[in-house]
Amino acid sequence: MKQIFFFGILVATAFNIQAQKFFTKDGTIRFFSNAKLEKIEATNNKASIVYDAATGAIEIASLVKGFIFENAFMGEHFNETYIESDKFPKANFKGKLENPGAVNVAKPGTYKAKVSGELTMHGVTKPASTEATFVVAGGKIDTDAKFSIKASDFDVKIPGDKADNISNVIEITCKSSLTELKK
Asked: Tens digit of pLDDT for each residue in 131-149?
């Protein structure tokens, strides 16, 4: 009888973990380009992020026009000339933790996990991977990840006369505070 009771608790616990999804609509994506003459950076604080603890699947989506620049003129050029945000309004990453068990959402702590998937930007989808940090505490999960991409890999054209102003290498940082998605 004890074995059946123990098995029942084990199954119930496993089902509960499998059903855990975490979410935010206020994730932060920051990109940074360090060129010889100019540093370009922008932040979007309205990224949607969903993490499925059972499968390790993670998805990040943002509207490109949601990026805020210190210089409005830079933002205008970013949206109209380079990223063409009217034509390509969204950017997203769909991926998965290579080892879903690397993050224990039931136990407070700091976990590192390799995340691999596909990044879609400017109408182009490319493989992307990075190591992410997950901090489980107080019923939420804080995440932090950094990607390094090349603008040219996503068909973002940098005119020759702007090559000294804009780096082809872009650093993208994603941070979020995820809460459990209730059914």
From this structure: 999 999 999 999 999 999 9
